[in-house]
Amino acid sequence: MAAPAEPGHSPGFKKPPALLRLKRKRPGRRSDPAAAAGAAATPAPRGPSAAARRRNPFSSLDNAPRRAAAAPQPPAAAPAAGDPSAAPFWQFLEPACEEKPSGGAEPAESSDILALSQDLHSPLAAPKAPSSPREEFPADWSIKTRVLFMSSQPFSWAEHLKAQEEAQGFAQHCRATGTTLPRSVQEPRLCTELRCAFQQSLVYWLHPSLPWLPLFPRLGADRRMAGKACPWAQDEALQQALMSDWSVSFTSLYNLLRARLCPYFYVCAAHFSVLDPVSLGNQLPAMMMMMMEVSLGLRRWESKDDDDDDGSFSWLEEMGVQEKVKKPDAISIQLRKEKHEVQVDHRPESLVLVRGSNTFTLLNFLISCRSLVAVAGPQAGLPPTLLSPVAFRGGTMQTLKARTVSGRARVQGGFEDVFSLEVLGPILPHALHHLTLVLGPAQRGAFRALLSPHEPSAAFNAGPAPPQEDVRQDLSACGLHPKTLDQLSQRPTLGKSSIRLLEMKDYTYTWKA
């Protein structure tokens, strides 16, 4: 006969020890026979994600999270066998892995290929490109965190760079010497100029340099920095030393910008970011700075109506009821006027533009501003990140991470070899354009790129258009390729968005923002 249920307890309730006997038996130690028998009866978890699939024994069956049923997808039309751009690149099968090279791009492992295939299988990863091809794609001032190039031609030329080719690529970057590649390279793997130019396009400069900390992006990076070693967090003397070194680097970049030896640079803080591009084409050393994701206190906007506090209540005096109606105080009036401005804090609408001589004032403000550095959290005491395409005082040379993935995709009548090149890191605007200049000849004028932008930096595309004048004469010594200068001097057309899909066919571009 079954024992009656205790009051206040469910008949099917099990004690937690009966469900949580998942500890593995350590070798060399004796364990309780009853516990060992219970552990043996409990099936061992399979795979690394078994812990994530365990149900909380204290949660009821009704409130357990349920996975939404996948919506049925209509069968897609099969692409033509001879059209590589229509092939479903995300359906990777039979991945071909290679050994890790000593330089250049790294071949991905099978687990990385599976992750890439799941990422590319998302419907948002492959939007439809416009049907109007052009010789050049518009300037995009957002910083990309990841770019995935795909092509029917292999990217093996980007792997296993020789030591001499890697050194030559660094030398070309430091000496600002570009390479003119032919329209099409028949044997990319044997072309030393192509491989050196690829290495050159991966170089950027960073300050400060802390290898154990992710210094980009800084907005919303507290979770990634949590638990990292930060010896300066409680040391004011160390914080002052870091800030003093950062001020020297920041001033160096500003001076390079004024001398037209640097086309632009980024200041990435914990609460806002700054883009400082030179006024392309202007003969005078006039510059502009754009700050995005800032608060009202940093914007310091002045409304034209600030001086008129009582004008809106003059009608009360005309009606003779000014003594009976309580007028709001000055603080309430100011809060009412700033209500709309506060609503756009840390949004793309909070973009601030500073031009001309005011840029020097903003420079001094950033150096002396207390809110430039976080006072609490994982980023406390850490100066902002400086990103530049050229060398500057205190900057450290860094390279973007690149790796190749090869596999097979389904096409009509069988399978087709597909190849991809993934680039990770803070991909600056000039680096993206320089990579396209290298990939065009290497991939015979046909490739597709999926771009993952740093979303807050997309607001920089809403800036004003630079003057349309001779750019190469002004910035001939800034270290960028002449075609890249022409591309960055185009009138902005992306608004608050950024390019997410870039495709080249027959050496012409189409894109989708």
Overview in brief:
The chain has 513 residues and is α+β, with helices and mostly antiparallel strands. The protein contains 15 helices and 14 strands. It has helices at residues 16-19, 33-41, 50-53, 110-120, 163-174, 192-201, 222-225, 236-258, 296-299, 314-319, 330-343, 358-368, 429-442, 471-474, 482-488, and strands spanning 106-107, 144-151, 203-207, 264-268, 273-277, 288-292, 352-355, 385-388, 396-399, 401-411, 414-427, 446-453, 501-505, 508-512.
The N- and C-terminal alpha carbons lie at a distance of: 71 Å
- How many helical stretches? 15
Strand fraction equals 15-25%
Uncertain ranges: 60-66, 74-102, 110-129, 281-286, 301-311
Shape type: globular
Helix content range of the residues, please? Answer: 25-40%
Kindly report the average pLDDT value.
Answer: 74
Radius of gyration: 29 Å
For the sheet with most strands, the description reads: 7 strands, mixed
Task: Please write the string of helix (H) and strand (E) elements.
Answer: HHHEHEHHEHHEEEHHHEHEEEEHEHHEE
The count of strands amounts to 14
Task: For the largest sheet, list the strands in their spatial order.
Answer: 1-10-11-2-12-13-14
Structural class from helices and strands?
Answer: alpha+beta
GO cellular component, one term: nucleus
Subcellular location: Nucleus
Keywords: Developmental protein, Nucleus
Family: Belongs to the DONSON family.
